[in-house]
Amino acid sequence: MPRWNLIISLRWLLSRVGFIYIVAFLFCLVFVDFKTLDERTKIRHLNDSIPDFSDLVLFSRGKALRDDTEWQRYANYFKLVLSYMPDDALTKQLLGFVEYYFGHEGRAIDLFKNSSDIKGQGLFWSNYNLGLIYYKKGDWSQAADYLFKTIASNPKLTGFLMQNSTVYRQIFASPFFRFSLEADLHEAQGRAYVLLLSSLAHLGQYEKMFLVSKVAVSNPDLPYKDVFYADAGIACDNMGRPQEALLFFEKSLSLQKSNPDVYYDMATLYGRLGQSQQAAQFLQASYALHLKDKGTFPYEAHFNVQVF
């Protein structure tokens, strides 16, 4: 009899406990927002993992890396963000930047390609970096393709997306980031045109080169106007329009008197026109400037992969 009473008591207890669990489960189902809890947990995890972006910002500005720069932590953080938001194109291009300077060029190219557009709109930095990487490889055709996409992208959209990206905002919060995003984008646009024009020259596509240089010259926001005029001169020279070429070369020199390459181009052109005295003078000026040049020219030799 006592044993039977014990069994009954256990059944009653279990039924009470089970009922409580069922009620608690139903309460959670109705009143607890598991999605919100999950999002808060993710945000807390991300916040705890945010690295100090100072080295990244300084390196992007040409500063030498410290020996203890935490590249791996940057990579880990961007990968963590992508584990939560696998379609975040802006974080992919940031990870591509880190992978490139890690020496993983293939991974960087894949990441830049996977983030080269968003909803049909080309993203500036990924296309710019792809164009630059292929330019450095001497693959002029692929470089030109990506650089055309770069100059066709909307810089205002790029700036808007960066300013509304959680990860970019964290980078901009660095005390070392004291730059104008708009000015930086105009500078990078100018570099994209310089690289594109050089790629078209290597491809011998001089008509396209001339048209692109005219577009670049007409944009008041772009730097490197001296290059655009010089490239218009090169295009005209190769299209059999030497007098126009001379005018463009002279305009280039009026903006930048220290570029030895423009003097050399003018010397070559004067030589073909049979004006040997002018050819000799410009050739001598070119050699003298080459000796003085501290590595400024050509501009494109100093362009690097960037993401802001």
What does this protein structure show overall?
74% of the residues lie in helices and 1% in strands. With 308 residues, it is mainly alpha-helical. It folds into two domains: 31 residues; 232 residues, Serine Threonine Protein Phosphatase 5, Tetratricopeptide repeat, CATH 1.25.40.10. Strands 1-2 form a two-stranded antiparallel ribbon. About 3% of the residues have low confidence.
Briefly, what is this?
With 308 residues, the chain is an all-alpha fold. The protein is built from 16 helices and two strands.
Give the low-confidence spans.
32-40
CATH class of the largest domain: Mainly Alpha
> Would you count the extended β strands for me?
2
Radius of gyration: 30 Å
The number of domains is: 2
| Strand line-up in the sheet with most strands | 1-2
User: Which structural category fits the helices and strands?
Assistant: mainly alpha
Shape: elongated
Percent in helix? over 70%
In sequence order, what are the helices and strands, one letter per element?
Answer: HHHHHHEEHHHHHHHHHH
- Measure the end-to-end span: 82 Å
CATH superfamily of the largest domain: Tetratricopeptide repeat domain
Q: How confident overall, as mean pLDDT?
A: 88
Q: Could you give a short account of the major beta sheet?
A: 2 strands, antiparallel
Q: What is the second-level CATH architecture of the largest domain?
A: Alpha Horseshoe
Question: Which tags fit this structure?
Answer:
Serine Threonine Protein Phosphatase 5, Tetratricopeptide repeat; 1% strand; 308 residues; 16 helices; mainly alpha; two-stranded antiparallel ribbon
